[in-house]
Protein 1
Amino acid sequence: MSYRSPMATEPAKARAREIIDAAAEIFQQRGYADTSVQDVASAVGILKGSLYYYIDSKEDLLFRVLEDVHEDARHLLDEVAAMDAPPLERLAAYLRGHVEFNLRNLAKVAVYYHDFGLLAPERREEIIEQRKQYEHCVVGLIEEAQAAGEVDPALDAHVAAYSALGMVNWTYTWYRPRRGESQSEIADLIADIIVGGLRAAGRG
Amino acid sequence: MSYRSPMATEPAKARAREIIDAAAEIFQQRGYADTSVQDVASAVGILKGSLYYYIDSKEDLLFRVLEDVHEDARHLLDEVAAMDAPPLERLAAYLRGHVEFNLRNLAKVAVYYHDFGLLAPERREEIIEQRKQYEHCVVGLIEEAQAAGEVDPALDAHVAAYSALGMVNWTYTWYRPRRGESQSEIADLIADIIVGGLRAAGRG
């Protein structure tokens, strides 16, 4: 029985999460190519053989890290979709949530963006497909804002969405917790710039 | 005599440029680890021995690609610094120029952001130092805009600058020339969002 089965025990699920978090940290610090399954087992303090209860290979470990990022992103989008608010307000909530997630999960997010190209082709396609669906939701929010008159309908909603995601995603490259900036202040400022900029753009 | 000497002939300089461009393309497509100096020599159509007139090693080739990106970035900042215009107008000009450069130089920019960590430590430090100076100029423009009353002085100018650069830098991950969006329209939209967003942020 796999730890991913609904029958898996809570300790097995907690351990799986610990393994994924440790793998993300080590991939990010040492690079995927220079990390072994043994390194991850040692970091978690279990035998390499026990690790294979949770994963099939190092590439499987990479895939779990990436899946984890997507799962959280999906939850956030579902929450935002359920909000009863104008489109730009929902977009702002989504952007704030996404920035806060990224700042709390720096290693995973760095591995997500830096290393997804190292997956085997089939799984890489799966991640690309998930990412497209995700981007599609953000494009949809901007199109709704255009239909509602909040954003100039002449703007290219795809370019605007990719640009917004860029500002959000790039945070992992520069944010360092030790600098002491508040995560929620950073999230607010980014959401403000994007939403304020979308309201203003194209309207001279 | 090196091709970088002021005495180098124009053909030598043109060839050096061709080598750097080819290296960027191959690093981006195949990955730095899986590229050999021979691959680059073959792409340019010269003997591997001749390539060593221009570079000392594969890592040297990577460094040249990154230096090239910085050199263009510096030129742009110098141009913007010489403009007689309010700070946010200079920032907009800089952002437009930077986006257009990135879209025209996708391979180089991708290698710049993805692979600079693969440089030997000393050169990596050099690139990090250059990047800091560069970011510092963008922070400076935002601080000037705050002093001039164009931007809320309560905003964290560093977070705003890194965020603006994020939207600009991320373009290499999503822009594909075949989609046919105009490069200057993308540059205008990104500059509009950032500058409009900075004017609005923190002011309710």
Note: The two ends of chain B are 61 Å apart (CA to CA).
Protein 2
Amino acid sequence: MRKLLLALLLCAGAITVFAQKEDSAFIKKISDEILTNGKAYENLRHLTKKIGARLAGSPGMVKSEQWGLKLMQESGADKAWMQECMVPHWVRGGKDVAKAGYIPLRSEVKKGPYPTFINKDLDVIALGNSIGTGKNGISESVLQVNSFDELEQKKDLVKGKIVFYNYKFNDTYINTFLSYRDAGQYRGQGPSRAAKYGAKAVIVRSMSHAADNNPHTGATRYDSAYTKIPAVAIGLRDADWLSEQLKTAEVKVSLKTNGHFLPDTIGHNIIGEFRGSEFPDEIITVGGHLDSWDNCEGAHDDGAGCVQTIEILRAFKAIGYKPKRSIRFVLFANEENGLRGGNKYAEEAQKEGKKHILAVESDAGGFTPRALGFSGSDEQFQQFLSWKELVAPYGCTEFVKGGGGADIGPLNRTLKTPTASLNPDTQRYFDIHHARSDVFEAVNKRELELGAVNMAALIYLVDKYGL
Amino acid sequence: MRKLLLALLLCAGAITVFAQKEDSAFIKKISDEILTNGKAYENLRHLTKKIGARLAGSPGMVKSEQWGLKLMQESGADKAWMQECMVPHWVRGGKDVAKAGYIPLRSEVKKGPYPTFINKDLDVIALGNSIGTGKNGISESVLQVNSFDELEQKKDLVKGKIVFYNYKFNDTYINTFLSYRDAGQYRGQGPSRAAKYGAKAVIVRSMSHAADNNPHTGATRYDSAYTKIPAVAIGLRDADWLSEQLKTAEVKVSLKTNGHFLPDTIGHNIIGEFRGSEFPDEIITVGGHLDSWDNCEGAHDDGAGCVQTIEILRAFKAIGYKPKRSIRFVLFANEENGLRGGNKYAEEAQKEGKKHILAVESDAGGFTPRALGFSGSDEQFQQFLSWKELVAPYGCTEFVKGGGGADIGPLNRTLKTPTASLNPDTQRYFDIHHARSDVFEAVNKRELELGAVNMAALIYLVDKYGL
């Protein structure tokens, strides 16, 4: 009996070792294919340089949807389709302008000298979803506050002013997404919290630690309890300059922005499917979002996630992989200012009634991969952890708890689907996030490709072993 | 007795926990100081933009030495000095020129059409230490070989030709230093191995997977058994173009290079010392190399290592750290084409007779930190490993066997000093390595600073606990 047990154990051990070798060899094959014949970089060049910005409702959105559908077909999808959803249609409506001036009183004119920054241009950009100033603009004194606490302290001074939130991006976090979460509340809540006390408009320090002066946009959220007021982000150098002037002078800023909503319009998730041979009704989803802000090429955010998604499909096909389960490659609509694509995808998945066993998202830039994040049951997490040594040689040396993405969140909420994320290095992301510097040139070919390699490895393992 | 033992164990446990908390807090303090008040980035700007290239023997070398000495003093070194060493003095001697032409025979002239690339400029750069072509240049037919094996097969065809080593940088290695080691032999040995069979000159495909056409220089090593022949590196696009032409045509290349050695001259290691309070005769060395190739700003290679080194000194002083052991901050001379600085440092250390307990080098670019490498005894490695959890939150999540650097190698060989290296992410390094694109703009402020943070943490731990 003992001998039999031992033999069985040895046999099981041998099978495990064999399986690991097979998995390791497969992942190497995927990696070699992507690093040698990869198309992600050239696809990204096309998306960013030939199509460019693609905010929900824009002509760029329509072009990018067509591009995505065609590429899914060319890359070998068994089936590719557009999943319709209504998307919000916010437009900037023209160039955002801000000029700072110290306007001397008549009595002061005789005294001189005066500050020399009358009508100094500030580099600003209206926040997404914000209202415009009206054609006459808004010209008011600036009240700087460094935090919401300071806003509360100075609430009696707010009325009629332009509130300038100069909250600094925290340099001491190593993971810059923590700094973003920390500072992001000023972009999200700042306008309404200032409007509560009668502010006329808001200027927010850009959520970045870049060394340049590019302003960073992003969605704001008005609280319906208060008047909607215009809001812009300002570049870091101009924020520092403005703050410096305010130490000794009263500064007026003239703002002119033109943001407004047009009626909701039709957008689409772009979906390619690679049908499973054994369990076609078990679905693994991988995706990024196709929309970008209107002021940039959206190369890292999230062109990278889109071309990585398609690259995994292309590479699987190129090496002749036959998945057991169905894999869906998705370019989600409208992540930036509505999440209508992610919501629609979950809604349709629920209707369809198939089993969604995992969703993976890449939406943290096309930088060098460092970790895979995972959200699921403890048992599932343990299984996920067991694959770490297989994936680590390709860059994701850490397998961490907590993973997902805005677009796959709804799937998790409605169907309890476990979610995972590619976590690339975060140091450079907020240099370019939602700014005009988020361009193709900021993406490195190999870093982009390695992101696809690591996600492909995870998808292969989940496809093979289930979850 | 049991109770006493238990009490002792608990006590020891409490001390360990307390020490870990103290270490963790100290490392956070160092990190906050460097990420908030860091000067490394601005120092690098000065070194690259105001001084620029600084090959051994060049005016840039002299300027950078003075800069380094002054900065060591300003950053708080108890003592700073220049350690003299003779350095080789190779000069490029002018612009390297290569033109490719298909020279039709007289009989062919009547037939036409002819290839249109007569006198097409190729982007080349002479290899470091290589001889020049002479003022008349060398104009010969090109023989392409893709490997040394192919050279051996074609050895009878080599005589009188320009041998073109078109060995490709291997894309499938994840760690690009493996690709570099693999391809690097063609730069190092290629000229002499071709000269052995009578080649007139050598063109080497650049050791890079960049998407641009910048040629990458670097030292070659002549084998004294064979004639020295001129050698250049060629940009990747031109290498592909040349290779494509050679499929259907005989191509002549006219080369003109002017490299030559002037007599050895005086260079210096720049050393700053922070004197230990308890064991001043135990030395920890940290450094990078101050020299760079002449065709670039040497921002990543190795301006980054130099300014990180000085930043650790500055930050230790700024937070009031009092080391137990002496720490030496070293900018080494002449790493690129002679290693005279590293050799001199080891020689002087041996004479001085103090105990060198660790040497750390940063010479793999100022990219985001990923690992610390270590070479020492097994016992020392275990101690090194025990610190991993303290350092990992700052980026070096891997502690790996094998660490050091060219400049600290001699110290290891003469005094058996354990050596360590900062291993940043490798994906971007060979895009810019030894090419004109190794400029300040290619360095990210936070990535650079985090390198200093991780090395500072290691130095603190070795200083506190010994090794």
Note: Residues 276 and 318 of chain B are 16 Å apart (CA to CA).
